[in-house]
Amino acid sequence: MTTQDTGEELWAVRWAERATGFLERPLVRIAIPVLVTLIALVVLHELSSHVKWSDVQTDVANTSWKLMFFAVCWTAFSFVSLSMYDVFAVQSVADGEVPLPVAGMAGACGYAVSNCLGFSYITGTAIRYRIYASLGLDLGRVAGVIATSWIAFWSGMVLLLGCLLTLHPDGISKILPINETVETVIGIGLLIGLATLLIWLAKGGRRLAYGGLGFNLPGGKLAGLLTLAAIGDLFGASMTLYVLMPDDLGIGFPFFFAVYIGAIAVGILSHAPGGIGAFEATLIAGLGASGRSDVIAALLLYRLVYTFLPFAIASLSIAVASAMTHRRRIGGAATWVYRVLRPIVPMVAAGVSAVAGVILLVSGALPTSSQNLGVLRDFLPLSFVEASHLAGSAVGVLLILVSRGLFRKLYRAWIVAMLLMVVGFFASLTKGLDTHEAVSMLGTIGLLAMFRGAFYRVSGASIFRLNIPWLVSVIALLAVIFWIGLFAYSHVEYQNSLWWEFAWNGDASRFLRSSLIVAVILGVVAVNTLFGREIPPPVRTEIPKAVERLAMESEDTEAQISLTGDKQFLMSPEENAFLAYADTGNALISKGEPVGDETAGQQLIWQLREMADREGKLCAFYSVSTKYLPTFLDLGLSILKIGEVARVPLNDFSLDGKSRKRFRQAKNRAEREGYVFEIIPKEQLAPVLPELRKISDDWLAQKAGEEKGFALGGFDDEYLSYFDHAVLRNGATGEIVAFANLFQGGHKSELSLDLMRYEPDSPSFVMDALFAEMMSWGAEQGFQWFSLGAAPFSGIENRQLASIWNRIGGFVYEHGEQFYHFEGLRSFKQKFDPDWSPNYLASPGGLAAPRILYEVNILISGGLRGLTK
User: What is the pTM of this model?
Assistant: First the structure.
């Protein structure tokens, strides 16, 4: 997979998120899953309070193989229907560009993985993108396939609900508290709406566009087939569970189906993998099946058949295809299958790791076979068994946590997962002689070993650091597993002494201690995720001679900020272009755009993006112009306006006029009082550096912050030695009272400054006088422009129809004066009647943009302490 694929994949995921309309609210993403999961667990606990784990085990064991066979058949029917979503969607959006068997595999594998991992709107989208992009399908068409699949799902849902409401099957009235007339009207309305949509599509030539992407909608025939696929999907999935339900439950399928659909919706809101916990609670409550062990047994078997079996088949198929591909004498279909499915290997590996972790945790939460413990008692001391039980649970939660590192294709995550599974294998044997669990650990080790080639990223970031959605999902999953333990030991009366009870039959005590270990590990990871920082300490780097040359020759004076010594460099092979960037530990952030040859600069932008991809980090370009915007868009980055840059033309510069009265008067007063303006060449700077340092230290002592970096220069002898300096001297004493280092662009294109400081005890007019003198000197020397630098958040429109980013930026600009003089800074620069040009941030979109800006400010302020001050 190329780096462009990764960038466009973010766009595909984001487009699908916007199409669903749900992920636009970050607080909703966190609050609703947590709330739904907590409510579901409370409800589930109440509904199953009179059920014993031993009864559930008995009901599972008594389930006939005939029913299991029917459940497997209905699962296969559902997944065939799921695969048809993509088959028909590809025919509509990209007919002839993707082989139909590939589309079918993409659909089936996508749902098999996303059902197991959760995050269906993220993993399902990413899986499709990676598969289709590997075959050359562009972003717009991938988005079209995904959106068409969603339309198909809702069409099937509307058709089924419309029929149920119109025909009034037995049991539906128990769910909907409305009379038959209203029910019929709603049902007919849904059916008429669907029929109208199909007729509208049948006329052909329909197209949908959103967020800059557009695709052709399916015609009437394909739309009908997509609707039938959705019906097959929903019917097959519901029938898988329905055949496993006890016969004496006394419910018809229509009633069951309505409850099933509601349970799926609640499960999606819970954000837990597969909606585990929330789905079960909703179904038991909706069916009125509280206190029934056979219903809980049916739900467990449903999870096994519909969630884990398809995922296992998909994982094993990819692993087998991988193994066969590596044998040179075998090719053909196996090679073709693996080439198509290889992009989704990291997601499958993440699922394998998470499933292995769940197996260990659930095993640690349930009672151990007394027969197996009796065998261990003859060989191992009790303390060793107790330690193995704790180790198994710790390994389980770590495997779930490390799954995100596998999802991100991190090599270190693969190494750690392999080691954890080896430990899990031995823990399975020594904590309870659980041979089935040990064999499953060996199987997962073998699968991950076959997937080794997919993990190429080398990152300095912690492999156990999660983002917010993953953290919420893991918390929900672990909460459900903890409830399983509570359910298994509901007959054991809680006592404080249970924590310290060490005995061969002390399963409840072992469960409590292992739960505490899991909670501690999760707490540490949560704190590290929410508050941890991994910005490497700044280290002064040696600046290559080619960088010095290109920075000084550049017509854009901002290139000279690259010489501060706190950045790293990418250099083109011909040494005709470079890119300066900093590594925050979480992101590679470029200061400005490439300097030098434009074609070579484009390659450097891609090189930085590829480097960030290998290291599993974000990539952003801070403070850039419009020059490379097409390249940034090709990378799949969002372009956000962060302010404007003011430049004053010097061709006919003058201090005359009302707007420049302040600077004219300051210059005249300085001359009357004997102050002298002088340019000190960089070759003669060394003798006066101690005097300039004293001024800088006195100036800095009056400020709340510390020396800046990254986008601003600090007082550093090596850095300042690159530049001529403008100074203002007291004519009577000869002492310097103010100074600024001068950025001089190549071919006298532009004059600017970076560090501008003055003696705090000097007269108030000295800085204005120095400013006026520098601009007048620049005009005399023949410079074309004088750059006044950027005004943050300036020029950002805060309007009702503007993007959320523009509205936030505009709000900060209008109401943030008490923290930073945004308006005052722009007003100061406006006095020179400058030309304003936009200043942009190119970064991943969504919540990544404010994160990048936060890290940029950390870089500029010299750490979190400097930013706070």
Answer: 0.62
